[in-house]
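Why should sequence recovery work at all? Because a backbone constrains its sequence more than one might expect. Tight turns favour small or flexible residues, buried strands favour hydrophobic ones, and helices have their own preferences. The token representation captures these environments compactly. In the example below, the structure is given first.
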């Protein structure tokens, strides 16, 4: 038993060292090559839902990506789930829960470009897609993004107010879930 635990500790250490080495080399190269993946159609921070829809639609033609409409915002703007990979570990990344915080949406579009093109990161991309299933929800609050404001069209802060409203509805109606 002690030998098995020692062996597992050595194996875990090896994987940590190996993956750290792989990622740190890729990290430096990615920093150097970033401009070639930066989404050229988003040039300012105050972009709107209509500006990212062509980028999301473009992913539908890439067999690596699964694009699904999750629903719509209060004002009827589509909210999409985009997934890539088939690993056992699910990772969820969302952006713009607050409509006036667009930086992560811009970063997601750059990540889509990295995965959509053949480049120096094929080994890393293959590893990520093998080990992870990565789910993206770009622009979670498109109505807030339209106005460049934190809250959605109903004045709800999706970060703070939703959990309170959900908790209150469960207390008032415990049979609802």
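From this structural description, the recovered sequence reads:
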């Amino acid at each position: 038993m002690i030998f098995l635990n020692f062996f597992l500790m050595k194996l875990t250490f090896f994987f940590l060292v190996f993956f750290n080495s792989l990622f740190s080399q890729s990290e430096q190269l990615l920093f150097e090559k970033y401009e070639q993946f930066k989404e050229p159609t988003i040039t300012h921070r105050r972009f709107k839902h209509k500006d990212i829809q062509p980028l999301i639609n473009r992913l539908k033609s890439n067999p690596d990506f699964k694009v699904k409409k999750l629903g719509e915002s209060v004002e009827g703007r589509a909210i999409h789930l985009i997934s890539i990979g088939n690993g056992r570990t699910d990772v969820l990344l969302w952006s713009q829960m607050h409509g006036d915080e667009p930086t992560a949406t811009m970063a997601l579009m750059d990540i889509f470009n990295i995965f959509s093109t053949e480049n120096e990161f094929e080994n890393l991309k293959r590893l990520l897609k093998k080990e992870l299933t990565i789910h993206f929800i770009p622009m979670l609050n498109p109505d807030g993004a339209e106005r460049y404001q934190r809250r959605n069209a109903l004045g709800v802060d999706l970060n703070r107010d939703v959990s309170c409203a959900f908790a209150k509805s469960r207390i008032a109606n415990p049979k609802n879930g």
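A few observations help interpret the result. The helical segments are 2-33, 49-59, 103-116, 122-131, 142-147, 161-172.
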